[in-house]
Design brief:
elongated, two-stranded antiparallel sheet, transmembrane helix, mainly alpha, ion channel, K_chnl_dom, 2% strand
């Protein structure tokens, strides 16, 4: 029975590590616990019709909640691993009084100390397998810390790329180039560079799905508000006379279709055209669509 309880704790640890691995290093379409938490927080904020300033905090709060969830599950899992073997399999420092505390409380305390890599030494494993398992928990705690820092450092460059594209589309919408203005070498270069930026954003949404839950600020820097205009630019480019302009416009249209597919499959589930998906994306972020 003791080993069954310890195996239950090990299963919790593996579940947290699996979710961490898939979230940070091997994103999947369906996601896991972290995606469920982020989606729930996003829907709650939208359902409560929170102010834009509050909704803008959903992304950072969701990331902090997910990290807290990972830490909680790992700490609880290791405490359950230790619990059936407490206190017989552990040595306590003289005068600490810890052995007089409830066994579950001692187990949670030891798990907290080990995952934080404090190494206080007032509770020390005495059995061989526990002497191997406890340092392993400290290693997992270090991995969790470094993974969290890496996650934060990696997400903000993706947001910057998204905002750069949004601002560029907002500026283009302000100047609103016609088919004749796009029908030149500069127009082909413009459409090609936009296609490249859209592909980068598409890859970012694939690799960092949590970026969806971040607001971009004002409408001129919000991709949800401006991405629809890229569809109109592609359509204008496809109506041009020059072959190179039509080619790059087709590349932009295909890149937008791929981006719409990712947004629809992972977040929106509309089964609509790219224009309909982008309209749903704008509505989900509380934005008005920038059109022609």
């Amino acid at each position: 029975m003791e080993w069954l309880v310890s195996l239950l704790g090990a299963a919790l640890i593996m579940a947290a590590l699996r979710d961490l691995f898939h979230t940070l290093w091997h994103p999947t379409r369906h996601g896991g616990l972290s995606r469920l938490v982020m989606t729930a927080l996003w829907k709650l904020a939208r359902h409560l019709r929170a102010r834009r300033r509050v909704v803008g905090l959903v992304g950072p709060l969701a990331m902090a909640t997910v990290v807290g969830m990972w830490a909680f599950i790992i700490i609880l899992g290791w405490a359950i691993v230790y619990w059936p073997h407490m206190p017989e399999a552990f040595a306590f420092a003289p005068g600490s009084g810890l052995s007089q505390e409830p066994e579950l409380l001692d187990s949670i305390y030891l798990s907290l100390v080990m995952v934080a890599t404090l190494g206080l030494g007032d509770i020390v494993p005495a059995e061989g397998w526990l002497r191997v398992a406890s340092p392993l928990e400290a290693l997992i705690g270090f991995v969790l810390l470094t993974a969290t820092v890496s996650w934060v450092l990696e997400i903000y460059p993706t947001l910057t790329r998204r905002r750069v594209l949004a601002i560029r589309l907002a500026l283009l919408h302000r100047s609103d180039p016609s088919v004749q203005q796009l029908d030149c070498a500069a127009g082909a270069s413009l459409l090609e560079s936009l296609a490249t930026e859209v592909v980068r954003v598409r890859v970012d949404f694939t690799q960092y799905a949590e970026a969806y839950y971040f607001h971009d600020g004002e409408d001129h820097s919000s991709m949800a508000a401006t991405i629809g205009y890229a569809v109109h630019l592609a359509q204008r480019g496809q109506a041009a006379q020059r072959a190179d302009v039509r080619l790059t416009a087709t590349m932009l249209a295909d890149a937008l279709e791929d981006l719409a597919t990712i947004l629809d499959q992972r977040f929106l589930h509309t089964d609509g055209t790219p224009a309909e998906v982008f309209a749903a994306y704008a509505a989900d972020h509380g934005r008005a669509v920038t059109g022609s």
